[in-house]
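new request in #modeling-help
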Amino acid sequence: MVQLRKRGLAAAVICSDSFVKLAQNQSRVFGVSDLPLVTIPHPLGGLTLDDVQKRADLAISQVLSLIQEQGK
Amino acid sequence: MSGLKDLLDAPGASVQAENDFEKINRLFLDRGWSDGLPIVPPTVQRVEEMLEYCDRPWREQIASIPPRYGAATPLRLAANAVMAGCRPQYFPLVILAIEALAEEPFNLYGVQVTTHSCAPLIIVNGPVARELGLNCGHGAFGPGTQANATIGRAVRLALVNIGGALPGLGDMATYGSPAKYTYCTAENEAANPWEPLHVERGFPSHASTITVVAAEGLHNVNDHESTTAEGMLKTLAGTVATTGVNNVNNRLSEPVIMFCPEHAATVAGGGYSKNDVKEYLYERARVPLGKFSDENRERRLRVTFPERFATAGPEALVPMCQSPQDFIVIVVGGAGKHSAVIPTFGNERSVTRALKRKDGEIANSVEEFRRRP
């Protein structure tokens, strides 16, 4: 993601909210502190398929916004 | 030695503090430069003394420690070794451990940030273990021995202070582990009926090595009754085989089987080589697929190991690693009939490195690293 972002492509990391601080730290470490984070509620493990679908829906709307923003 | 003061004049290379033990410890705690226990203040003099046992340039990058990818240099490592309470003679092993951790197969990024409770287990082999007084007998995992306690702690402090493995920020372990304070031992080679770990891995017996394994804590295996190798191995196999360990789900798993000397003697006395032990455990330390929850069976095991379990029934047996050679077998401890099994992270491979001089030759003593005036 970092490499894609550095090349100017629309890129984001999808992470659960418990891991946002780690993701922010890593973005800074790799020199892309503006790397978009697509956040979904924790956890990812131990979910029913319905719950996975809900998280996917949340992520997709954020990803679409990101792509639209990048296209402007 | 005059060079260190110049190096420390560089911006950010040092911190000024009042010469007061409590205040210095408060400063280090506030900045997150700590494991939570009091540290020995890394003064210029103490760091210089630590660097006496380093034959490399003090600012040479030895490793890059994730997740911060901070540069591990002798200078920085020496400060952490001082903080941990190391004697300067221990410093070559601290550097060697960091080099081993940084080797790619060890997956240090994964080990540092995982939610799993693993900590780098440091196993020392060879003459330097004896030279430094590493405890491989009673209480080999502590408390009470300075070398075991402080070498492991120095490594942990480097992982925190250079690597940024701060709880919830760069170390995402769900609950961590007491092994993250220190986790260092030596193999009891004198009581080992088999070849020691470093010899098994192709190093000469006179080499001193460090092996690092991303390991959980110890799980005791009590057997006061078995008088045969098969009896002892049956007890071990039953303890190794369990449903909730990472080793079940990951292809790189290397469970550690830590024999106490008495159990090792029973098994070796029955004619079992180390390889025989591994073969036995690989075949017998298994859990029937039907013992796993429906979700773990369908969503994890069938998917991760389709060649074994895609269509397997509940009687199919799930091993704890993918080949007999994946078991790491060592002998540690004093008298008593308690061995241990140590499950591992499973997303890394253990690494063994020999202590070598600058010229690439095997070092016979840590004194070979001492700077000559």
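bot summary: The interface with chain A takes residues 67-69, 113, 164, 168-170, 172, 295 of chain B (CB under 8 Å).
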